[in-house]
């Protein structure tokens, strides 16, 4: 610990922020206020690391200089389509080099990126497009028809389709074209030619002349990203994150890891770039340190093993199920992970056995962090050093303050050690919800404090432990699921009269989406058929793992379903007599 108290002012600081004592050596209490936008950050990485590999995809490499050139051409192509400062541009893409190019090209024009999960169903995507109203969408070609055939009032004027195979090396592309079943199946999983009218090809939009340097760049306080989240109450909302927010979080991450070597790290982009966590760790942080970002369109052990033979990872941000799968592969001798010096787990709680397995396999540290979309997303982290404390989500990041308050009255502070709602303040705290003043006012308090909706305790020395959530969202595999969205999908089924959806903790960490349904008179309960039905409306991770039939749902005096009670009842191993069967 490098914090001596020779300076009397430092005693005050330590009294107010006791966690500074736990910071790893070399980690500052504050980061200097950021001065570059994400656009300038990428330009300076491209200058400093010109010849270094920025992106790698199935072995195909793009240097920083090439990346900057592609961003400039793509920006010019988007400008020709009419994109201007402040416009929203939707990205509906898996991880691939063009995702990175499109992201920075949109930002270069001062426009706003809106990220989406490309595996969402047509219904889910339509709801999201209703929120942001983007006129241009850059999408995976496999979903281009879905977007191009949305109802008139939400359909973007321009749909631009990206063929993932175009980012691959020639020999992989040729192998995918072989007239054998295996190649056809692999190819079908990666690309599908759009049939809807008017869909443009990204390769032609993005490959014209570079953008004129006279086109104005965005400012630090301009919005860079609208990140869709179910937030604390459940309805889809778009969190506005500025260049300052996102650049600050990348800088805070850099400050947290003084042992990083600029220009030399190999970061594995396994987490989806469309999720706040993957976006900051891979799209911004990795690019800010001139890392080589190895991109995976999905988590597939074989792909990770193959990539590790060319570019072994040194930094691997992920979620516990991925760490478990990789540690197991390492024990079986399939992958050598000994070069991984840093691994940061977030988005869901990290079980201690996962930490032990991972650290044995790699010899490096696996630490847990905490954040939310509204904090760009990282706000707390475990020190990457001996003071880390497994089982906690760590201590506030540099330049980040926390408070614990009464959830029913956030002006009332809770004493140290007492449970309460966590509030966060720092340069990474978002600017509010897009077109959502009331929702913003509900979570952004005066003086910049953000209500997290998480119930925590904080130890005397500043380590935070999550106890519960005020908000009802369910976290499964690191993804958030809004119970009301799943309930609405189940209610579309003619046999379902009422539905309550909750998260049931599973032993290995994380939660299972679980539904209790009340059937209409005369209907016969068939959990498998209901799950099949839900799958048509919801992306895979939101589909309930278990559906239970119930005679009724517990409700309060005004008739609101008490999800908390449902959760307690369904958490018991024996949920009878009310229940009929499990799916
Ligand atoms: P999102 O906005 O999708 O990033 O979700 C944010 C929520 O995820 C937080 O408010 C927490 O409830 C939860 N979360 C984030 N990190 C952790 C963690 N390390 N352990 C448990 N829950 C977490």
Walk me through the structure:
- Helices cover 32% and strands 22% of the residues.
- Helix 3 (64-80) packs across helix 4, helix 10 (243-256) crosses helix 11 (276-288) and helix 13 packs across helix 14 (352-362).
- The chain is globular, with a radius of gyration of 24 Å.
- Helix 17 (527-537) links the parallel strand 24 and strand 25.
- It is α/β, with parallel strands linked by helices and 583 residues long.
- The longest helix has 17 residues, at 64-80.
- The strands form six sheets. It has a seven-stranded mixed sheet with strand order 7-6-5-3-4-8-9, sandwiched between helices. Strands 17-16-18-19-20 form a five-stranded antiparallel sheet, with no helix packed on it. Strands 2-1-11-10 form a four-stranded mixed sheet.
- The protein contains 18 helices and 25 strands.
- Among the domains are: 63-218, Rossmann fold (3-Layer(aba) Sandwich), CATH 3.40.50.980; 401-469, Luciferase, Domain 3 (Luciferase, domain 3); 474-581, GMP Synthetase, Chain A, domain 3 (2-Layer Sandwich).
- Adenosine monophosphate (AMP) binds next to strand 13, strand 19 and strand 20.
């Amino acid at each position: 610990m490098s914090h001596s108290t020779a300076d009397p002012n430092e005693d005050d600081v330590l009294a107010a922020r006791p966690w500074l004592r736990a910071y790893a050596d070399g980690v500052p209490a504050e980061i200097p206020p950021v001065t570059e936008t994400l656009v300038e950050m990428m330009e300076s990485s491209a200058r400093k690391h010109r010849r270094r590999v920025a992106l790698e995809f199935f072995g195909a490499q793009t240097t920083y200089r090439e990346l900057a050139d592609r961003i400039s051409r793509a920006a010019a192509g988007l400008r020709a389509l009419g994109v201007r400062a402040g416009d929203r541009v939707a990205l509906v893409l898996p991880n691939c080099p063009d995702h990175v190019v499109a992201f920075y090209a949109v930002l270069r024009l001062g426009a706003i990126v809106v990220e989406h999960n490309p595996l969402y169903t047509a219904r889910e995507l339509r709801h999201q497009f209703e929120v942001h109203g983007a006129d241009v969408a850059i999408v995976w070609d496999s979903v281009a028809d879905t977007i191009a055939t949305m109802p008139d009032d939400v359909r973007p004027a321009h749909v631009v389709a990206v063929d993932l195979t175009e980012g691959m090396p020639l020999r992989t592309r040729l192998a995918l074209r072989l007239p054998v079943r295996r190649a056809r199946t692999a190819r079908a999983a990666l690309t599908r030619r759009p049939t809807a009218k008017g869909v443009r090809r990204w390769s032609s939009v993005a490959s014209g002349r570079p953008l004129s340097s006279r086109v104005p760049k965005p400012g630090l306080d301009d919005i860079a990203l609208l990140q869709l989240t179910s937030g604390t109450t459940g309805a889809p909302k778009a969190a506005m994150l500025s260049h300052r927010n996102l650049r600050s979080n990348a800088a805070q991450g850099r400050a947290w890891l003084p042992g990083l070597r600029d220009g030399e790290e190999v970061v594995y982009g396994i987490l989806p770039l469309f999720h706040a966590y993957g976006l900051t760790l891979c799209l911004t942080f990795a690019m800010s340190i001139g890392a080589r970002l190895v991109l995976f369109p999905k988590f597939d052990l074989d792909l990770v093993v193959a990539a590790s033979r060319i570019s072994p990872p040194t930094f691997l941000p992920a979620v516990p199920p991925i760490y478990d799968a990789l540690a197991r592969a390492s024990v079986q001798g399939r992958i050598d992970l000994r070069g991984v010096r840093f691994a940061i787990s977030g988005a869901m709680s990290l079980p201690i056995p996962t930490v032990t397995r991972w650290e044995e396999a790699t010899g490096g540290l696996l630490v847990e962090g905490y954040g939310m979309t509204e904090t760009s997303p990282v706000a707390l982290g475990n020190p990457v050093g001996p003071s880390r404390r497994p089982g906690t989500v760590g201590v506030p990041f540099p330049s980040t303050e926390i408070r614990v308050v009464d959830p029913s009255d956030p002006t009332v502070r809770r004493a140290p050690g007492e449970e309460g709602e966590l509030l966060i303040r720092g340069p990474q705290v978002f600017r509010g919800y897009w077109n959502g003043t009331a929702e913003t006012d509900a979570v952004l308090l005066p003086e910049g404090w953000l209500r997290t909706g998480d119930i925590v305790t904080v130890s005397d020395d500043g380590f935070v432990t999550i106890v519960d959530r005020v908000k009802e969202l369910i976290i499964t595999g690191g993804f958030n699921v809004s119970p009301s969205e799943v309930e609405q999908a189940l209610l579309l089924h003619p046999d379902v009269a009422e539905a309550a959806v909750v998260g049931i903790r599973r032993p290995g960490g994380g939660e299972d989406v679980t539904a209790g349904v009340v059937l209409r008179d005369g209907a016969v309960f068939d959990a498998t058929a209901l799950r099949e039905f839900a799958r048509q409306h919801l992306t895979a991770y939101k589909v309930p793992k278990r559906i239970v039939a119930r005679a009724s749902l517990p409700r309060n005096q005004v008739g609101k379903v008490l999800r908390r009670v449902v959760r307690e009842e369904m958490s018991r191993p024996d949920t009878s007599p009310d229940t009929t069967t499990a799916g």
